[in-house]
Amino acid sequence: MKSLIRAVILVALLFPVLVVARVRHYKFSVVMMNCTRLCSTKPILTVNGQFPGPTIYAREDDTVVVRVINHVNYNVTIHWHGVRQLLTGWADGPAYITQCPIQPGQNYIYNFTLSGQRGTLLWHAHVSWLRAVLHGAIVILPKRGVSYPFPKPDKERVIILGEWWKSDVEAVVNEATQLGLPPNVSDAHTINGHPGPTHNCSQGGFTLHVENKKTYLLRIINAALNDELFFKIAGHNLTVVEADAIYTKPFKTSTIIIAPGQTTNALLTTNQKIGKYLIFASPFMDAPIPVDEKAAIATLRYRGTAVNSPPIVTHIPPLNATDVEFSFLDSLRSLNSKKYPAKVPLHIDHSLFFYMAIGINSCATCLNGTQFVADINNVSFVMPTTALLQAHYYNISGVFTDDFPERPLMPFDYTGNPPSNLQTMSGTKVYRVSYNSTVQVVLQGTVFISPENHPAHLHGFNFFEVGRGEGNFDPEKDPKKFNLVDPIERNTIAVPSGGWTAIRFRADNPGVWFLHCHLEVHTTWGLKMAFLVDNGKGPNESLLPPPSDLPSC
């Protein structure tokens, strides 16, 4: 008997426990709920009556099955922002790109596997501006038995940053569209759904309760529609360990900069004296355009703090603190370890140059006879009425063309004098690549009309930011300075105002994948396009057939 026990122990030591991925089931009921913020109440869309919405918890390689039931009078889709969706493009979620919306009274099952992914992502509505209130966190834990590549935290907390309008957000964007003007900026920023006590209203803000001498992993998400945000906790530094669900080389900072759609994981060590410390989420804007300048305020409260203890404050960065932004971004590097390598494409099959700009087109029904539009390479994207992925899969003609320009048809000085004609052309165009080809895209910002930072989000892939700079990209000099060793790997990248960013990725995921500015105002105006990746060889390199419950238009 003893020999049998020893044999069992020996086998257990020599062979690791077989880890079986699980199937995680969730039910998302989209319902209306009255919500009071800034001493004003309005009905909002929610998932399961929660704002922000429920957190999806899973582990690397788990399959997630979410039944979304639409109980409201709006068309709805849900996008699982940053999930690779390998071979499962039907579950990606952007309306009229990979699916038609879920109509009122209908439902749809999103089914996808978190292949090789771990970290913090987010989910949000992907039709019109509904993501202002329809959003939540995705927490992907490592496989069982696999540790973090940084000190294990004692506890973990999700922190969601956002924006709040007193008015109905759909009414705000509809009015702006009819007038041809930019929409009104938000009335407040929020931390976990609360603006904090700074808006002539007695409502309290979010409180992060902590214990002394503990380490907390903060999973920070920017779910705002249009604003990049600084995040700062009075009296405490943060150690960044992850960005967009990719482990980074750890570095300490007092301030995090995070664009809409991005996530950052940071370790917080509670090593200060017992008390209350204010947490700030304040806007970043280095261009002369209107923005909601009010900071959201929350409180970090140590256990044992007296009720009447005065809060400890800190200085927040100026609105246009470009130096703070650049310092943070320059510190981001992929971990690039043996276990988590940075597989940067070195040979490039498609070298693309996309400039991102704001234009002005004529509009007979608009207030001034013109309307603001946005474009990539002078193409303002027109949303189809049939989903692009369906049109591609079923070979439906007339929905899109695959002639998106790989570089501007008429080059100009992008950060100097603007072209004489600011009108754009319209079209539903995609750029086609073969399976497993490598792609480099230089995303060039412009300085006319609205020289704004553009957080560009690519669906279906992670990419490496191999370079970034100010002014116009120099194709002779700038590639010599590219980081091809440990560049940060992301799904959303901020293209600097009046500057450029170069990204690389491998097109190893067949389907139709959206690339767009994650400032919702610019997406609405047409700053978007799509990549079409053809099938490879065999079923493991081919898009799966559509599910039977795929919504119809």
Note the topology.
Layout: H1 2-14, E1 23-37, E2 40-47, E3 56-59, E4 63-70, E5 78-81, E6 107-113, E7 119-125, E8 135-141, E9 155-164, H2 169-179, E10 188-191, E11 207-210, E12 215-222, E13 228-233, E14 238-243, E15 246-253, E16 255-258, E17 263-269, E18 276-284, E19 296-302, H3 322-331, E20 350-362, E21 370-376, E22 379-381, H4 388-393, E23 425-427, E24 430-433, E25 437-444, E26 454-458, E27 463-470, E28 489-490, E29 492-495, E30 499-507, E31 511-517, H5 520-525, E32 528-533
Written description of the protein model:
With 553 residues, the chain is mostly beta strands. Helices cover 8% and strands 38% of the residues. It is built from five helices and 32 strands. The strands form seven sheets. It has a six-stranded mixed sheet with strand order 10-9-12-17-14-15, with no helix packed on it. Strands 21-20-25-30-27-28 form a six-stranded mixed sheet. A five-stranded mixed sheet has the order 11-19-18-13-16. A hairpin with a 7-residue loop joins β20 and β21. The longest helix is centred in the first third of the chain and has 13 residues. It is globular.
Question: How many strands?
Answer: 32
Intertermini distance: 67 Å
Structural class: mainly beta
Low-confidence stretches: 4-17
Q: Main traits of this protein?
A:
globular; six-stranded mixed beta sheet; single chain; mainly beta
Summarize the structure.
This protein has 553 residues and is mainly β. The protein is 8% helix and 38% strand.
